[in-house]
Design a protein that fits this description.
It is found in: Cell outer membrane. The protein is mainly beta and 812 residues long. It has six helices and 48 strands.
Length: 812
């Protein structure tokens, strides 16, 4: 792999220096000039980017294609103000908008397709929004809004809106086909076609992908396997249009969790027997779980299924000119999701094998491999959570909007209705393995006892705790929101914007109460001979009862925003915006406080931003200082033992976002860049831990979010056909948790990428390399476990190791 990375760097350098002055006309630039760009996200009507009083980043289909992001999260790394953790794999990643801390996922932003949510709440337990969305060639462009008017145009989105806008057909029949492979066994095909069935009237577009790969981290099985298809049909008439569309996603992805590393001064290095760049606990040898249940039957799970959503989306959009400058637009969508989620979650750090046995009260102990029965003597062992979650989710949403245009602006009024439901079933067990990146299941027994003795074994086929946590619960939301937005142009240069949203939202749900049991009197055996009294693995099995606990919660809130934009001239503009919004309590906050919902409050947000924008044909820059204050943030990380953090805090943040693009030397050299400087801190964060001890984090830096991070990507159009680029992503120092102590620092890191492309007529050849220097870059520690006292072992989740992809794309 290192030789391949060195070759990629060398080839890029040769292209840079040997042909740098051979160009006459560059191939198409990666960046579309912002001066004439029109945006729709967070605005009542399409308007030029320079006239929009919002902090918004845009990416055309061509830009997305040439960046060739390995995941949706990797693409969003290019947006200032978004601190993105990409180490989870292709899906299941985390995004923190403008320094707002959370347990992860997309809690304070809404991910949309064509202006409606991928799913109404993007931060349900184990249901990150990117689980249900994939970037492919059917995406026309991305618009990413931070703060600002997000709370007026969507629910639970004070941090921003991420809107993927899909392609539609035109009178010209066009298509794109792509074939891609990689150093990690990737085979991917993308296809998108669109055109007119009836000229000027009836248009279609259909696109999708299928992909299979082994994963950059070595799992021993197909880490990612599946695809997506998306299609739409649009009929245009004199006074408007009607569009219907359908999406099917059936994809399976491995989710990667923290691995052991060792602390070496201010750096983290590989743990003995574990490759930090390519290793994972999610390995084939431990992929099968099959355990009896206290209520009868067996529970089986296959780790190779990973995160496996089956998503069906059916939607429609209608626009009609009512006359007299009035128009109406209605968007509606129904989404159904059936997802199996299986992942390996470390239950703390590796332990010395002798110490692990002694902590279980064993004076005599013996480890053996489950696969062969061979007795082994490992230095370290690892307890892992084998977490299985099933979720059935659906969402019906309708957005009805009326618009009135007048000489000086427009008024938009709308009613937003969304009903959604998520039912989930958890069945978690713990297993015991070697502390290596190709782990093997271990059995642990007391050799001083006979196999028929009570407590002889601490495991059952490598399982230490069978079904130690069951959860059967449901949450439903009914959202009923009215909104009003006004744009008013005082002069050709000065404009005002104001918006208000009234939310009357209802949430309810239930959980099934549980009890504990064992299999001692079940008549089952652990090995065909001995009963379950010989093992402790079943001693605390969870059993679902027949009693339910119900809860109900309602929201009655107003969000609003005020802004002004002054266009100094065609290329320069300044703006200011204040916004007040909220985020409803997240699912885990309800569940943890089901008997005391008075403790649970919506997160209230106040944000102020000012901005300067300069857009020209050759140079763009936006500089946006911002301030935010939040109240009632809930912290709901689920720990390895199934309990939750369940703390509440306030935060403040002062920062500045910078985003720019430049074409230099007659378009030979291009560079895109973005960066964020901020100081997110806790405020009034004191209280008592579950064990009765007290804490005081007031004034500490918020966890997992850097104060400084940036991305820069220079490119050279070497000839009309040849293009080469490098990219640099810097992610600053962070803290694993709220304590801000030296033993939970996550070091800063810099990740480099590089690539090249060659355009031969309508065919494009490309090679892209990620993390080409094989950097150990840590995005998060282990939020489910604390650091190991008195040890240099740290649990953390690094970015993927060096990898390269090659692709051929045909435009027709």
């Amino acid at each position: 792999m290192k030789k391949k990375s060195i070759f990629l760097i060398a080839a890029t350098a040769v292209l840079y220096f040997n042909k740098a002055y051979a160009q006459e006309t560059p191939q198409d630039s990666v960046k579309v000039s912002s001066i004439d760009q029109v945006v729709i996200t967070g605005n009542s009507n399409p308007k030029k980017k320079i006239e929009s009083s919002t902090a918004i980043s845009t990416f055309s289909a061509k830009e997305i294609q040439k960046q060739n992001p390995i995941s949706a999260a990797a693409l969003l790394q290019r947006v200032p103000g978004f601190a993105v953790e990409t180490s989870g794999g292709e899906v299941g990643n985390n995004l923190f908008a403008r320094g707002i801390p959370s347990a992860g996922a997309y809690e304070f932003v809404q991910v949309q397709e064509d202006g409606l949510p991928v799913f109404e709440d993007g931060a349900l337990q184990f249901a990150n929004a990117d689980n249900f969305f994939r970037v492919d060639n059917s995406v026309s462009r991305l618009e990413a809004l931070r703060g600002g008017s997000g709370s007026i145009y969507a629910n639970n989105s004070p941090g921003g809106l991420i809107n993927f806008i899909t392609r539609e057909g035109t009178n010209d029949f066009r298509g794109t086909a792509k074939l891609e492979t990689s150093t990690y066994g990737l085979i991917r095909t993308d296809l998108n076609i669109g055109g007119a069935l009836v000229k000027d009237k009836l248009f279609f577009n259909i696109g999708g992908f299928y992909r299979s790969d082994d994963g950059i981290r070595k799992t021993g099985f197909k880490a990612n396997n599946g695809g997506q298809i998306r299609m739409n049909l649009k009929y245009v008439f004199d006074k408007g249009y009607v569009k219907v569309y359908y999406k099917k996603l059936d994809d399976r992805n491995t989710f990667f969790l923290p691995i052991p590393l060792t602390q070496d001064g201010d750096k983290l290095k590989g743990f003995n027997g574990f490759d930090p760049n390519y290793g994972t606990y999610s390995y084939r040898a431990i992929s099968q779980l099959n355990i009896p249940q206290a209520g009868g039957g067996f529970f089986s799970r296959n780790l190779e299924d990973g995160i496996h959503p089956k998503v069906d989306v059916l939607g429609a959009e209608f626009k009609y000119d009512l006359g007299g400058n009035f128009s109406v637009i209605n968007k509606t969508r129904y989404t159904n999701i059936d997802m199996n989620y299986t992942g390996i979650f470390p239950a703390g750090a590796p332990k010395n094998a002798a110490k692990f046995a002694q902590d279980l009260g064993m004076t005599n102990y013996q480890y053996s491999l489950v696969s062969s029965g061979a007795v082994v003597n490992p230095d370290y062992v690892q307890k892992l959570g084998f977490w299985a979650i099933d979720k059935q989710m659906n969402n019906f949403v309708n957005d009805l909007q009326f618009n009135y245009k007048f000489d000086k602006g427009n008024v938009t009024a709308g009613f937003y209705k969304s009903n959604w439901k998520s039912h989930q079933y958890w069945n978690w067990s713990n297993i015991l393995t070697t502390a290596t990146d190709r782990p093997e299941l271990l059995n642990l027994v007391d050799p001083s006892l006979s196999p028929s003795s009570t407590g002889y074994s601490k495991t059952y086929n490598g399982v230490t705790d069978m079904s130690t946590l069951l959860r059967d619960s449901q949450i439903q939301g009914s959202l009923n929101d009215l909104y009003l937005n006004v744009d008013y142009n005082v002069t050709d240069a000065l404009s005002f914007n104001g918006g208000i949203r009234y939310s009357r939202d209802y949430y309810r749900g239930y959980k099934v109460n549980t009890t504990t049991a064992n299999l001692n009197n079940s008549g089952l055996t652990v090995d065909g001979t001995h009963g379950f009294n010989t093992t402790t693995a079943d001693d605390n099995m969870n059993v679902l009862g027949n009693q339910f606990t119900y809860w109900y919660y309602d929201i009655n809130k107003v969000s609003y925003t005020l802004a002004s934009n002054y266009k100094i001239n065609r290329e320069n503009a300044v703006y200011a915006r204040f916004s007040h919004g909220f985020r409803s309590p997240n699912e885990e906050a309800y569940y943890n406080n089901i008997g005391r919902l008075d403790l649970v409050k919506p997160v209230l947000t106040n944000q102020l931003e000012v901005g300067y924008k300069y857009y020209s044909r050759t140079f763009d820059i936006a500089v946006i200082p911002f301030y935010s204050a939040l109240k009632n943030l809930s912290f709901t990380d689920v720990y390895s033992d199934g309990t939750s953090e369940n703390k509440f805090a306030n935060t403040t943040n002062l920062g500045v976002e910078i985003e720019g693009y430049a074409r230099l030397f007659n378009n030979i050299f291009e560079v895109t860049f973005n960066g964020t400087i901020q100081n997110p801190k806790y405020k009034d964060f004191t209280g008592r831990n579950a064990d009765g001890s007290t804490f005081n984090y007031d004034g500490n830096v918020v966890r997992r979010i850097p104060k400084f991070y940036f991305n820069i990507a220079p490119a050279v159009n070497i000839t009309k056909e040849w293009r080469a680029y490098v990219s640099m992503n810097y992610y600053g120092k962070r803290f694993q948790d709220e304590g801000n102590t030296d033993d939970n620092i996550l070091p800063s890191f810099t990740e480099f990428g590089a690539g090249m492309s060659y355009q031969l007529g309508k065919i494009r050849f490309a090679v892209d390399g990620t993390n080409i220097f094989n950097t150990i870059g840590i995005t998060e520690g282990d939020p489910r476990s604390q650091t190991v006292s008195g040890s240099n072992i740290r649990m953390a989740r690094p970015i993927m190791g060096a990898a390269a992809r090659a692709s051929i794309t045909l435009d027709f």
